[in-house]
Amino acid sequence: MTAPDVTGTPPGTTGAPTGRKRRLHPAWIVAAVAFLALVGAAGFRAAPGVLMVPLQEEFGWSTTVLSLAVSINLVLFGLTAPFAAALMERFGIRKVTSLALCLIGLGSALTVFVNQSWQILLTWGLLIGLGTGSMALVFAATIANTWFSKSRGLVIGILTAGSAAGQLVFLPLIAALAQNPGWRGASLLIAAGALAVVPLVLRWLRNSPADVGVLPYGAEKPEVEAADAGSPATSAGKPDAAVASSAPKDSANAAIRALQVLKRAAKIRTFWALAAGFAICGATTNGLIGTHFIPSAHDHGMPETTAAGLLAVVGIFDIVGTIASGWLTDRFNPKVLLAVYYQFRGIGLLPLLLGSSVEPSMIIFVVVYGLDWVATVPPTAAICRSVFGADGSVVFGWVFAAHQLGAAAAALAAGFIRDATGHYNYAWLGAAAMCTVAAVISATIRKDAVKKEPAAVA
């Protein structure tokens, strides 16, 4: 008698009960390792805001110079994402993820040797930008789309919360080390955190369910994407070349595939609506708060460790908000959720106009912004999957590229505003206005586009 596989289902069956106790589906093991990888890669996300003041004090560099280093990182973070998604499809999730973590570790470790401003552009900007870009939120979408047939929104929410968990774990430690023994010790901590996850990735992160002889979690039969069927997908009876890939994933060059997907997606209005909204999302999170909140709090007399602790609390609320967003995405119209999230975020920025040292305003900001920090990711990824089918992960990579371009622009602009005016008030006010624009854009995403489901043609 043939032994059952790891899911408790004998080979050749499609999931019928066997009388044996079912074991944990390997998809959840992969998701757990992916979560840890995102935690390890998230160390640098907390670093610029904490290390900016110590670097200024030691080297005399301006806020604009350090903001430029962060902007380069964010641009590469975004532009690498769609190509990383295609590389994961061709070479495997495990190889790309391991290489990305090594780049983050190398860039963080080399930072301790910098003494010229161009060197911080190389380490913070180039090396860590390429590494974090390959471990961007598109990684979460790829894991969910590859390993899960149901509960995708929830899984993306949990994995996205890994970045918040990384911030929660690293931020207070980085802030403490930046004070004593210094920012170099904090940089080495980030490097160690990224490299520590590599052995787990190599051992447990599998590329696809086929590697362990199972179906995706929740699937009763193999899922056939239009790309694998060799024919264009149809949606509601209407062919649409932008809905699914027209080339097999295993033979197309990764870079060419990423560009071809962009060309197809650019013909669809939904893509531009998602990209515009996500650009504003990046500008108001990674670009503005992630980079400049701690320097702004320092301007108002708040100790850096206290400001870092507040952002860590934002991380706690973010975990709750993002997982809840994934659960809601599986049950409600994602475009409505996006509109609500963006407007909610704009309101959350307004208390900062009262000054970073006013405690009631800080409590409001921490709660509102924490719940909303990356809650936009599950509904955005769900719309990409629904509208673009087999191309969904790569399309999300391009949408995420827009996210990081917005973040880079905001990081640089806020640094310039601070140097020119001596405060960040205009940056906070402009970001709140942009959130309202993102809410309107999201609300206008076409209903029929969101509800499209690609159907394979034999």
Overview of this structure, please?
This protein has 458 residues and is mostly helical. It has a single domain, classed as Growth Hormone, Chain: A, CATH 1.20.1250. It is built from 20 helices and two strands. It has helices spanning 26-41, 43-59, 63-91, 93-110, 117-134, 138-147, 152-179, 183-196, 198-204, 226-229, 254-265, 269-287, 289-299, 304-329, 334-349, 359-372, 377-388, 392-421, 425-443, 447-451, and strands at residues 234-235, 238-239. It has a two-stranded antiparallel sheet. Helix 1 (26-41) runs parallel beside helix 7 (152-179), helix 7 (152-179) packs antiparallel against helix 14 (304-329) and helix 14 (304-329) runs parallel beside helix 16 (359-372). The chain is globular and about 60 Å long. Residues 1-20, 224-252 and 448-458 have low confidence and may be disordered.
List the helices and strands and how they pair.
Layout: H1 26-41, H2 43-59, H3 63-91, H4 93-110, H5 117-134, H6 138-147, H7 152-179, H8 183-196, H9 198-204, H10 226-229, E1 234-235, E2 238-239, H11 254-265, H12 269-287, H13 289-299, H14 304-329, H15 334-349, H16 359-372, H17 377-388, H18 392-421, H19 425-443, H20 447-451
Antiparallel strand pairs: 1-2
Helix pairs in contact: 1-6, 1-7, 1-8, 1-9, 2-7, 2-8, 2-13, 3-4, 3-5, 3-11, 3-18, 4-5, 4-8, 4-9, 6-7, 6-18, 7-8, 7-14, 7-17, 12-13, 12-18, 12-19, 13-14, 14-16, 14-17, 15-16, 15-17, 15-19, 17-18
